[in-house]
Design goal:
Mean pLDDT: 86
Radius of gyration: 12 Å
Order of helices and strands: EEHEEH
Number of strands: 4
Low-confidence stretches: none
Shape: globular
Largest sheet: 4 strands, antiparallel
Strand content: 15-25%
Structural class: alpha+beta
Helix content: 25-40%
Distance between the termini: 35 Å
Number of helices: 2
């Protein structure tokens, strides 16, 4: 079972992030997200769309500020 992380971005939006492929074999994760990376989907509490991230496989240990920054960068890129 996959674990989730809750993080809040600078604009006050609360996000829930979960590894999309958590129950798949490691080889499948590497093929779909990239070697040493994980497919993570972060869903906001409201007002914005979900984002897909490809952080390092140890994303659960990322500092909250780094995870929030990754969400913000992805949102900005998606809005272009």
């Amino acid at each position: 079972m996959s674990e989730q992380r809750d993080v809040t971005t600078r604009d006050g939006t609360a996000w829930t992030c979960i590894e999309a492929l958590a129950d798949m074999p490691e080889a499948a994760k590497d093929k779909l997200a990239g070697e040493g990376r994980r497919a993570v989907v972060c869903t906001p509490s409201g007002g914005a769309h979900s984002v897909r991230l490809s952080p390092a496989e140890d994303w659960q240990a990322m500092p909250e500020a780094d995870l929030a920054a990754a969400i913000e960068v992805t949102l900005a890129r998606d809005q272009r």
